[in-house]
Design a protein that fits this description.
Elements lengths: L1 E4 L3 E8 L9 E6 L4 E2 L9 H4 L11 H8 L3 H5 L5 H9 L7 H11 L4 E5 L5 H12 L9 E5 L2 H15 L14 E4 L5 H10 L4 E5 H9 L10 E5 L1 H6 L1 H12 L8 E6 L5 H10 L8 E5 L9 E5 L7 H12 L3 E6 L3 E4 L2 H4 L2
Parallel strand pairs: 3-13, 5-10, 5-11, 6-8, 6-9, 7-8, 9-10
Antiparallel strand pairs: 1-14, 2-12, 2-13, 3-4
The structure holds adenosine-5'-triphosphate (ATP).
Length: 351
């Protein structure tokens, strides 16, 4: 089974212990400031350990829960997301859903506004991108989806994933108009974007609030055709005194929650009940907004084991895998320098 990991793994492995019998397993690769979650690609069912539905969420019956747990991403997205996007998704290694994808996608495909509340690296970006590809029409030259991000760096990452998913199918037989994704980010070439927006509006815009507000104020583009609005890292945006008035304006003046599907994503939403209340009261979302709360950040485990192993550069990868196999930790953090794609034999990850 393919997963993403690093060829230059530093053998610094932190594992939580003592572990209960590992029926589920979770590894976090941490490249600088971001966690990458490998659990879903390794076909884990982490739900029992990490998931929680809060009272605002749609309860799942036991039977439905069991069925949902075994569905692939393709099965969940079938009849919603175009086939060539599903093909690309699988080529990129997204086969089994993460917890947040499993729980949020059916809610999103049913048209509900949603607060995606799940830890960093849990797969929120792919969740809202799949929703976007289920809704937009590439033949319409209009901004149909807008993703607001707090920083240029996050904007570049989201744009990259959006473009990778939308890449034209290799098969020349498949006639497919390609989706256009524009990154409208602070520090970018806004003049060039202006001409592009006027000449042929893209289907999806990924924007920081500063650049976006400039364009909206100058009426370079309008949000009349916007069907999906995503605000990523919503807690960060609402906590920034610079960004908060612009985001409020975007949510209520430049567009109306009745004409769009609104998704807020965040790893942490302090006072989430209050936020949910505000969403409805302030008309940032419709009244039936669903709070999908998955993988709440767990308190620190009672014990952390830190293994320090000295080895040659070429041995790192093999040694890491054998340590994981021998220790069988329930969870761990792996610090990596860079990422390349590599294939794990399934025996290595299927604990
Ligand atoms: N279903 C999946 N199968 C395998 N890998 C996945 C899946 N979904 C997401 N990933 C990978 O997991 C990593 C984290 O995903 P993503 O960036 O979407 O998380 P996130 O919740 O949006 O994180 P953040 O809160 O930092 O924005 C990425 O490398 C992504 O490619």
């Amino acid at each position: 089974m393919a997963s993403s990991t690093s060829a230059t793994v530093l053998l610094s492995l932190t594992i939580t212990a003592p572990y209960p019998k590992p029926t589920t397993c979770r590894f976090l690769l941490q490249p600088r400031n971001r966690y990458l979650n490998l659990s879903s690609s390794a076909n884990f069912s982490a739900k029992a350990l990490f998931s929680s539905y809060n009272s605002n969420s749609v309860p799942l019956t036991k039977e439905l829960e069991t069925n949902c747990n075994s569905l692939t991403l393709r099965e969940i997205c079938q009849d919603h997301v175009p086939d060539h996007v599903l093909g690309r998704m699988e080529e990129l290694g997204y086969v089994m859903p993460t917890d947040v994808q499993r729980e949020a996608l059916p809610v999103l495909f049913s048209g509900n506004d949603c607060i995606l509340h799940a830890q960093t690296g849990s797969g929120k970006t792919l969740t809202y991108l799949l929703l976007i590809y289920s809704v937009i029409n590439p033949k319409r030259s209009a901004v149909q989806a807008l993703i607001v991000v707090p920083t240029r760096e996050l904007g570049m990452q989201v744009t990259k994933v959006a473009r990778m998913l939308a890449a034209k199918p290799m098969d020349p037989e498949v006639e497919q108009k390609s989706y256009t994704v524009m990154a409208l980010l602070d520090g970018g070439m806004l003049r060039r974007h202006k001409s592009w927006l006027k000449a042929e509006p893209p289907n999806i815009v990924v924007a920081t609030i500063g650049s976006l507000s400039q364009m909206l104020e100058k009426q370079i583009f309008k949000l009349d055709s916007m069907r999906i609005l995503v605000v990523d890292e919503v807690d960060f945006i609402f906590n920034s005194s610079k960004q908060v008035s612009s985001i409020r304006k975007l949510l209520t003046s430049y567009s109306s929650c009745n004409n769009r599907q609104t998704v807020f994503a965040s790893a942490s939403i302090p006072q989430h009940r209050r936020f949910l209340h505000d969403c409805i009261q302030q008309k940032w979302t419709k009244g039936d907004v669903v709070h999908v709360h998955v993988n709440p950040v767990k308190p620190m485990p009672s014990c952390l084991l830190h293994r320090f192993v000295i080895c040659g550069r070429k041995e790192k990868h093999r040694l890491l895998l054998s340590l994981l196999q021998s220790d069988l930790p329930e969870s761990g953090i792996i610090f990596v320098n860079e990422q390349v794609r590599t294939a794990y034999p399934s025996s290595c990850v299927d604990f």
